[in-house]
Design a protein that fits this description.
The chain is mainly beta. Helices cover 5% and strands 41% of the residues.
Length: 818
Amino acid sequence: MKKKPTSQSAFLNLRVLLGFVLALAGVFLALLGFSGFSNVSAQANATPEAQQFGETTVIRALRSDLSRPLHDQPLVWPPAEAEHEANLNPKIPHQHEDGPDPVIQSTLWQRTIGVPSIPSPLLTWNGIPYPGVGCNCAPPDPDGEVGKTQYVQMVNEGIQVFDKLTGTSLLGPVAITSIWSGFGGACQTGGNGDPIVEYDQLADRWIISQFATPSGSTVPRDECIAISQTGDATGAWYRYDFHLTGNFLDYPKLGVWPDGYYMSANIFNTAGTAFLGPQAFVFDRVKMLTGDPTATSQTTGITGGSSEAPFLPGDLDGIIPPALGDPNHYVSFPQGSPLIYKIRAYHVDFTNPANSTFTLEASVGAASFTSLCSTTRNCVPQAGTTSKLDAIGDRLMFRNAYRRFADGHESLLNNYTVSANAVAGIRWFELQRTQPGNWGIFQQSTYQPDTTWRWMGSIAADNQGNIALGFSASSSSINPQIRYAGRLATDPLNTLSGEQHLFDGTGSQSATSNRWGDYSDITVDPVDDCTFYYTNEYYPTTSSFNWRTSVGYFRFAQCTAPQKGTAHFIVTACSGGAPISNAPVSIDGSPYGATLSDGTYDAVSTPGSHSYFVSKTGVGSQSGNFSITNGQTTNVPVCLGASPTPTSTPTPTATAAATATATATATATATPTATVTPTATEAPSPTPTATATATATATATATVTPTATVTPTATEAPSPTPTATATATATATPTPTPPQIALAAQGRLIHGQRAADLSWSGATSNRVDVYRDGVLIITTRNDGFYTDRIGGTGTGTFTYQVCNQGTQTCSNQATVTF
């Protein structure tokens, strides 16, 4: 490890002091308020951690809970660490037999009109810089993902949220540990890096992960996974800690699939000296989208042993999901003689784990190549220094991009680094299949157009099959640069038709154990399905431990957005109409997403007819059909639970009226009395319970018809209409139940938008109903705190109440005025 230069010492001392002050502030805030956020579900799971079902091991989450919104989490500023490697990342044993490369693209192919197909960047901006929020480590492991409106970037060990169009920071950079504040266990205290961020566009949710070292261990064994509660990455997160192995869990990589979040990892012994083999895992996506603490992970164990090549899971791009029941497709680094890509199918069954399988579905021939720097990390040259960089040529690079196209064919895209004409080149390849059928090689090529070294690639395709490949580029005459190349779907196969520079570094990296990367990330905008976003690292000056990251986006002018529309689900209780949150939604039999606190969920789908199934345990289910029109939003109203069934007992609200007429001279007394009893699926008005009594005396000729305002439960019915010889009209005087819950509210602006911070005490249920202006806006954890992001910038007054879930035991009214 390199000693910090003297010129940096004053800055670093100031930074350390600032970090110490902020850390103390964070601890103080935690002592004041965050202890109230602890959740029983976040404690150690009392059930067995792992159980065996045939060849499948089912692993329960050690801990799970729902965090505060990230923008409200206590700031965690880790103490400054000594400069160090981010993680061990041991090399995979070299077993490859070199051979001549028959698919090198040695000269840039130009289109007949002489203009490269690849477009220039539309925008670039600075990403998270060293030290990555306190990590003081290399490499940064930069990766990022684009969503509906945000771009989220992660490095070791920081996270930042940007506006995807302008690059304006919306939050951060903050330490990844901030997300895990108050969670406890390895995720809070032992996070080690290898961060991954994904956007689940079927559900409009974010997924982040990193591995962690449990107390008493010296290597990572846990995987920490968080799922955003909404499509806003600055909001709250469902948090999970899975203890996956007793060995060294290295290089975990995720892939989104409808039935699960799939992961691969390279497993080593605890000393990091022996590769034990690759291992596949899958996490219960449907349950994790709703924060269900019973969500599990499954694995069939290490595959093939130390002689097996590492693999990556398929990661879904685009609006068309895989065919119903299609397993996730893992692709392996090429192995054997002759070389083959092994494609394995992971079929998961969370209901009957013994039925889960991880099997070989295809072996596809790969063109031969020569390994690059198979025994050393001192590999890629740079200008201005004798230090060289690690090319990581022993594995596939992140991501294994899967896409299903409108014409029915499917594609898997990936890349890795090889030696081509004595420099580093990128072997990229595309597997395709059309059902019925199996995977086969569609195109493959080694991109090495000149004497510049290219490595650390990431590849993806837009909705029309145009391909972009991002990578690092360096040589003894240039500093490391961030570049990308690409091709149109109409270009000749096996060629990239041009290259662009995203950002040119102005320095080289020295004395950091040669580490670089360990990966980069290119993703496709889920809205237009055309725009590519890419992030990678560079150096501003020749130095050690001083990396920077850059983010940029571009698109092919020939790309047009796919035809699509939105199904706007509105899920409510059949009785009472209260919104139902966390109800999973399936479309055409495939799991898609889950409803938000207001009972809505937006699913983007292709034009035409579709079926749906919405259900929630303990509430009910409903199926039906809807149609999508291109560019339009279709409302899909759904009600769950039994419809009201009349009984003879009326349940009036706090105010009741009785009227009567009589056929003779008489005196009548009407005394209706009732207490509201909501069902489990109803969201009652926060109006306190009262007993209504009405008494009237009249002399008239009429028939008595007492009436009342009634809110029936699912088993109630209107009372029969009695008759009598009197006329009476009465209005009840409510007698409110004194508030048992004390509520306070305070308004503020978040990024210029209105928000209200609510805090309460005295609630006795596990979850509480929060009302704004008499309307239920969310049922949330009873942790004493909730931030209502109202939105908008104008003036206004908002009134809040908090009630024990499903009851009328409510707080005082608290008003916020802007």
